[in-house]
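Record type: ASSEMBLY
Status: queued
Input:
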Amino acid sequence: MIEFKNVSKRYPGGFEALKDVSFQIPRGEMLFLTGRSGAGKSTLLKLIMMMEKPSTGQIHVNGHHLNRLASRKIPLLRREIGVVFQNHQLLFDRTVFDNVALPLMILGYQPRDIGRRVRAALDKVGLLSKEKSKPVTLSGGEQQRVGIARAVVHKPPILLADEPTGNLDPELSGEVMRLFEQFNQVGVTVMIASHDLGLIARMPYRLLTLREGALLRGVEPIGEREHG
Amino acid sequence: MVDDTLVKAASAQQAARKDEALRADVRKSAASPRRISSRDRFASYWLHHRQVAGDSLLRMLRHPLGSLATWLVIGIALALPGALYVALDNLAKLSTAWDGAPQMSLFLRQTADEASGRALSERLGRRADVARVQYISREQALAEFRELSGFGEVLDHLDSNPLPAVILVRPRTDEQGAAVVQRLFEEVKALPEVDKAILDLQWVERLYAMLSIGRRIALGLALTLGLGVLLVVGNTIRLAIESRRDEILVVKLVGGTNAFVRRPFLYTGVWFGLGGGLIACLILSAGLFWLGDPVAHLSDLYSSQFRLQGLATHQMAVLLLSALGLGWLGAWLAVGRHLGAIQPR
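Status: finished
Output:
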């Protein structure tokens, strides 16, 4: 589903954010991407989204060879990826409903389908009653869940999350993680970048750990290690 | 107190029921297929166009003063060349009303008597390339001169009538060009009875030359001011892009194409152009109405039927369409320049 082959990313000015990173994520897997801030997590996610281009190496995402993807095809790639941002990236001048409806409008759904699907997504994150509210009136946790609803409303095969629990208390973080697990159970490939090691340690998923731009090898899922 | 609690409980129950109904609706829809048919896609494409068009108009009307200022600037910029064009158009019409067709004046020799003059006039009138002839005898010419010139007393002191008889010849102008008129002129000039011939063609030619200069000035003005409109719209759209930067970023992140991002701004440009075009039409119509009466009065003084012509429907359509096109183009240029710079980081 996602494959990196010897990928490096060097920013103008010489800073090397990623060094020779290779990994494969099969379809339907859920995994964590960890590392200290500045270790390259965000850069890795940006490469998958084609917000950045790799300096060297090959990237494949859901059958697209990103090195060869024309820039006018980038929107098509992004439609196959749902993204949850740490800072939510909600539009504050429109309602929760309109925020979640945005990907469906871009995809060209009929209004009646948009209504149904938006409500299904809001129901999933427990915010069905807030569809007419403006994001400003919601708590941080609720805003994050609106962001999640927007990321999954068009049922993308891949879900990326960048520090989705960064500003949340442990209880809310747990809720958000359970949501991601539910999406994973219906076949979505889920990749979560997080430095919340306490939370990650409780979950039985593979870990990709970055340190100063390089991938640490031989890290097994923490859950399996505990059990076996 | 008790009442209050009861009301709260009831409303909570109601809300719960509404939620349940929504969930049922949601569950039903979850089973629907994910694929979108191309017909649906097309329908929603047009729907989106309508929505975006309406939305950008509403955004504009939400700031009526700022929008009006832009409309006025565009309207005035378009009204100037428009007014010049209308003026030239009217001048051209005026010259045809005065018979753009040339007229020849044949001054007969003093020696020719009235009978031979009238015979010549009739002979000329029968020619195929002559539309109309008018014979003015020496006496008629004298009477006319006495009446119009105001030198009546001077003429009384003269022994004889110094004025020649004149034949006015109006060539048939429908099927021939200037060359035919010229040939006719050469022919009648050589007639033995004719002392002197004048072809009143020059003033028409001069007028048309002046009109064509005027048209070029109008075109140049239109091009220059059109460029100004482009810049005004472009700058306004640039500000609109800046103020909607966050929205553009999010739309790009969730897979909006460039066309999708561009659309609301192009519609904004179209509305600016259309509004400016309407204002230009209004200015022109008001100006023509304002000038209508004095021009009619002047024209009456020259005993002419000429009346100031307003904008015809097709001219108004051209004005509105070019305003719309300018708005769209200005927006397109601004979007092309500034939208590419906004990329999610």
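Annotation: Chain A touches chain B at residues 49, 51, 72, 75-79, 83, 89-91, 93, 102-103, 105-111, 113, 116-117, 119-120, 123, 128-129, 150, 155 (CB under 8 Å).
Annotation: The two ends of chain A are 28 Å apart (CA to CA).
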